Amino acid sequence: MGRVSSQREWWGGRSMAFWLVVLAIPTAAVLHVMARPRGPVVNLSPRATSRSSTTTAAPASQPRKKWSPPRFKAGFNDRNKMARVIMNYGVKDLSVLRAMVGVPRHFFVPRAIASRAHYDTPLPIGFGQTISQPYMVAEMTRQLALKPTSRVLEIGTGSGYQAAVLTEFTPHVYSIEIVKPLAQAAKARFKNLGYHVIKTKRGDGYYGWPSEAPFDAIIVTCAAGQIPPPLVKQLANGGRMVIPVGGAFSRQSLMLVVKDKNGKVRSRSLMGVRFVPLRRKDVSAK
Amino acid sequence: MSQLPPVRTRLALLAVSAATIGLELALMRDLSLRYWSHFAYMVISVALLGFGASGTFIALFRRRILKRPGAWFCAATMAFSASIFPCRLAAARVPLDVRYLAWDLAQIGNIVAIELLMFVPLFLAGVAVGVALLDAPRRISGHYAANLVGSGLGAVMSVALMYVMPVSGQFLVMSAAGCFAFAVLLPWRRAGAVVLGVLVGGAVAVFAYISPPETISQYKMLAQIPNWGETEVVHQSFGPLGRIDVLGGRAIHYAPGLSLQFMREIPPHVLLIVDGDQTSAVYDPAGIEDWEFKDYTTAAAAYHLRKRPEVCIIGAGGGADIGLAVFHGSKRIVALEINDQVIDAMGGPLKLRGGGIYTRGGVTVLNHEARGYFVSAGESFDVIQLPMIDAFGASGAGLYATRESYLYTVESMAAMYDNLAADGVLAITRWARTPPRDELRIFDTAAEMLRAEGLDPGGRLAMIRSWATVTVMVFRQAITPDEADAIGEFCAGRSFDLCYLPGLSKSRANRHHLLDEPYYFQAAAALLGPHRDEFLDDYIFAVDATTDDRPYFFHSFRWRAMEEFRRQLGGASPAFLEIGYLMIVAALAQAIVLGVLLVVLPLAPGIGALRGYKHRAVSLGFFSLVGAGFMLLEMGFFQKLILYLAHPIYSAAVVIAAFLIFSGAGSWISRLWPLAPRRLAAAGAAAVAALGLLYMAAMDGWLGLTQSQAPPVRFIVAALTIAPLAVAMGHVFPSGLRHLGRSGPKLIPWAWAANGFASVVATVAAPLIAMSFGFTVLTVAAVACYLFAGLLFQCRRDDPTA
Description:
A: Rossmann fold; B: alpha/beta; Growth Hormone, Chain: A; Rossmann fold; 8-stranded mixed β-sheet; 4-stranded antiparallel β-sheet; 13 strands; globular
């Protein structure tokens, strides 16, 4: 009796649970939609990250490797807000925005300034290096036009944040850092956070990583008025190289170097600002 | 000061005064090395703040001080000496991140902290000097003379010390001078005083020992290279023009602006770094052909137009541009290098590491500043090269915004143009910036120079660019079709873009390093066309030609553009703020706040006592105007004489010393005139105004006569040029004070405070006025201050004999 009764109770309870779940799903969905910050309706959840690329094919690509970037709950709302700020700059590529939401930026800055990690500013990480403004990271990543099979070389690991963002697109990420403490810290951080696919090396980025070349994409985060010829050589035909121009805290534009399928190199300046007369008159056209 | 014999007092005063001026100059060098040069104004402003606050302090504690003036004088010198190193040590620990300033205004708190730490020893020095000057009136003139001679000696000694010791050593000398002062004053018969003296001396020694050598911003090249590993310091030297470090290592690769088409090896090289950031490479190629990489920079274009040219290079640096000239078989190469330490290094420790290029056959390196050289050279060169000398990142961040540059002005280009051969080419290379700024300014400056010569700039200018650099070429003769073709060919082979050539079509202007639009072509066309003024007015940056009157080539920021940047870029817009400019604006705001807090507010409790005086507004207005006018003129001279004396540190030393000495002399002479103080003050102000206008009209021409003379001659000429004006300026303030002493003695502390406050604010306002309106307006503003001050006193209706 007691057993039947308890069975009934169990069934009754289960039924109730069932209906609760049935009702909870649409309620949660409605609440979720209502609770979302204003802005374009997009799904920025990293789980929905599209692996598709926006532009060119990557000729030096590797076979597709099974890789799921680590996921972090901490600071998720901050990253969501950060992604919306990036979107306001005109970066509409969902895969890039999702990548920015996916990587916990606050783990990549010194603890003392972790509370400012998601601010719309670059931040100092020591040794005269900076972690770029989130918008710049997003734009540089977008310009690389990555695919899941792309091989990417990063010159200047810094704190490792940019490399972590790259792993949201491809597991074939190679990163070189010349400053020993930064290289060591980044390596440990990758290990702790689960970014084990990033191959790091402490060394002189000028020479690139010849044994792993060619690369479909190269990102140089520490240019100083010179583009090393070895890097141009290690760029695969059809590959893209992105370089921020200007010093720390003052990166005002990006430079895109493209090697076409015939190996011919062209470059382009990607200005951060549209070039309009202050009084809205096109004087030059007169 | 009856407790001490006058000789000891004067000896101590001389030492403290010398140490104070030396400390000011050492602080300028220290902060320039640690950060960038825009702290110079801040140091002068803080020094004045210290002296202003010390005046207020003495006014408040006058009675107590007069009870034991000797003890106060001794204690103040002791505290001054003891405070130098602890304050420097604490300042070095302030985590000021200048480059982060545009993004994080909290950094202003760090600037204030550094200012307050600089303020402490300067305030104590002010107290020491002020207490000494409270002595019996018959001794004052002697004390005053000691103060002035000490100040002058301090300036000269400080520059001399820069040749023989690093900045940290100079702080030790200044601290030792303070120790000497209190040792002179100390009553050695009293055991307690002796123990105290020994303790202070010991504390100075301990702090000097633990005080760090020069600290350098983490963003400077010099701070970063050691982090790369396997680097070595090849050579190090110091001098008034900066600290030189030569570093070598496997990770050093430096070939700025190199074409993407150059794929071969760059010769081995070391880096020559001035003041931690201004970098050039010393290459050590195996043969002439190894200089080929330099031919893949935009600066090489001129060599493809002239065969075996005679060349002048401005800024020899590490010799890379000499190498380019050698590669092209130049017949004769004259290279100018302002810094003799660079020449010594190239001829000494670097001789076998690439420095030999300086002594190669056909190469003559002159230790000369360009403007002075071209005034007297009377030579003609086929090619004059003005290569890039500033750091890549620093220029982009606007760190040089407040720096006067007399190389990139219409007058400077005219001097270079006059030294070109009949078919010569002047080639000026700058970093390419997005959106374009410096490059367009060079183009417009060249065009203005040609217009001033009565020539059509359209046919004599060419502009080309790579992804990193822009070269503007100014031709003595109109560009021929063959020359235009040669430039086109040169660019095509290196993926460089044509920006402007006579007859260039838009379709040829933006082919290799693509921009959204052919902006350079459009801007060049606008700058040469009838709508130049409209273009300049509308452009997002200030890119109009710079002149000697407003030589702020690196300052192109416009506040009204900020709204546009904010609209387009939101939070990314601070990237376009010029840090140097921002620093000056922040310094002005701080000078106002600190001036009120430290100079004016402490007097507030006694304000009720002033109610009985009817001319208090006029009096305080007079002293404020005199304070502002004095500093506007002094700072104007400081900025203006950089051209004549070739470097800010020389200018600061000569100007500070000359103004102190000659205005002190004027103050002494003012007692000799048989005129009522009020009349004398008004007459003095009128004389300053008249002389100011005369200087404005004639000083450039007068100094131009000796521009090519050796530095010591120019120092003396500059000091003597300042003398008449400073003597006249020295009449005004003391005469005004004497008048006040008779008509309203309780106003005197307030007069000091008003004068001090206005001086502090004017010191920082002066560069802002010069940057916005030019030196002429700055001088007119100073003249107006004196004129109004004179009128205020002249028109007062009180006893005319007072």
